[in-house]
Design a protein that fits this description.
The chain has 343 residues and is an alpha/beta fold. 52% of the residues lie in helices and 12% in strands. It has a seven-stranded mixed sheet with strand order 2-3-4-1-5-6-7, with helices on both faces. Helix 4 runs antiparallel to helix 5.
Length: 343
Amino acid sequence: MMIPTIPTPDEILDKGFSRGKKAADLLRTQKIPKHLKGKKIEERRVVTACQVMKDKLKSILDAVPEIEELHPFYQDYIDITVGVDSMKQALGALNWAYGILAQLEREYSNKFKRNPSEKASSIQREAYGRIASVVNKIEKDLDFLDFAKASLRNMPTIDFDATTIVIAGFPNVGKSTLLRQISGADPQVANYPFTTKGIQIGHTERHWKSIQFIDTPGLLDRPVLEMNDIEMNAIVALEHLADAILFIFDGSETCGFHLESQYNLLKQIEKIFGEIPIIYLFNKMDIEQDEDYINQFVDNPENTLFISALDGDGIDKINEIIDGIEKIDRTPQEVDEEELDYY
């Protein structure tokens, strides 16, 4: 999400009042009847100040996209990182301030017209006081948007048209090695909330089809019972993307985790991701392993591959399976009005 540079209330006021003074000084050089000149000058000062401040607030509001129009992944991402409700509240406050400044602009423009020039200076001071009060009331909202800008600066760039494969498994089972093998390049690493190293994204093109691989170190590699609510929400955000999951076992257990623990993690991920297809990979087969022991944790032999990501063994078979994966259609289904009438 692109959030522009967020000014402080003092910066907004200084810019508005400075431009107001310049506009007023420019009017002083013009020939205006003496009985009108004073109030014309001060009216120009106040109106210009309001317009400059309104323009600044509008530029921020226009630059931030409507959250509801974003992909559900980004909506969840924003909610996890800074909070969607807090973001809407801050933007709503700026919209409120814009409306009040427009109201003050009209109110004081009329007030200058109705009063003699002798009262122009006092009316201008009154207007500036009320303008400053409005802008200062949104200080915490500007602070929040500045915080949101920093927090969302490195939001992952996701290709929503690509077929997306999410990689899961305990640490040190070979996820990064596999990601490099099947994507054919060093993956892009981008910040993701509540992962230890940042989300890793690899891209490849196969048979004119774009494929995107996502690995989330520190998120999909530990028991769900150890996760907090925010981490669970982060996983739900990934659910919006996954067209399939590669779950990697380390049958050698050199990763430091027993196969039983790895299998339990798989079962938890299957519950979270529902009907999304899962491909089961037993990695590090270059290390001698007990086949009978491993077979205890093979649920579906037809959907299980034994590979060595380090040596590249089995990568071709993985690619063949990936080639057959279809993108999941997540567009909302239209409801038949006749069916609604029936119910």
